[in-house]
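Weekly structure sync - notes
Attendees: PM, LS, DV (DV joined late)
Agenda: review two folding runs queued last week.

Item 1: First target. Sequence and structure tokens pasted below for the record.
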Amino acid sequence: MKNFHLPLPDDTYEHLKAAAVRSKVPATTLAREAIDFWLRQEFRRARHDAIAAFAAETAGTVLDLDADLEAAAIEHLAGKSRKSK
């Protein structure tokens, strides 16, 4: 574990301390959990953006999703059964 000095605005510091008292959890634990949560969300957003960018760049190319596979996925997600060929 590494230490990290983080100056906070007075209001943020007071809110953090009050939340720590209310939850009976150390302020450092609350801050660590909040930062971890934000980083996980940021990672998910970045991954989503990268996938969306790839999909947009490859739309209509040989790397685009196969039409039959896409239709099967949509039917599956919609809960419909596919007819046998």
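Item 2: Second target, run right after the first with the same settings.
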Amino acid sequence: MAAKLSKAKRPKRRWIGFSFPSSIQSRKELEIHFGQFLPETIHFRLYDAHFFGSEVVTNYCELQSMKEEIGIGIVCVNLVDYDLVRDSFSKNDGDETLYSLSSSGKIRLVRQRLGLPKVRKK
């Protein structure tokens, strides 16, 4: 069995907080929609998903004085793909739009900026 990679040798990641349309109401739908939004070569992992109508999203919209009907999510991408993903957010338009809200190398900071609760491990 191979030795575990040190933290410095592991691939670097970026977490991106984003909003998505209220028509998406499940993690599976969101993963499919996000996958269609990006080129096939980009690997991503959906961490948080808070859908329209939830207390978390309602609190975020009130805090930001937003009246849009949105959901909020956090996705993790590799650092090498980060620029391409951010470009995809800026080129995206239409009714089924995803908008980047925040990004960081630490998921804790993205959650903090979006006012999302800390996820507890069970």
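Discussion on item 2: The chain is about 35% helix and 25% strand.
Action: LS to circulate a short write-up before next sync.
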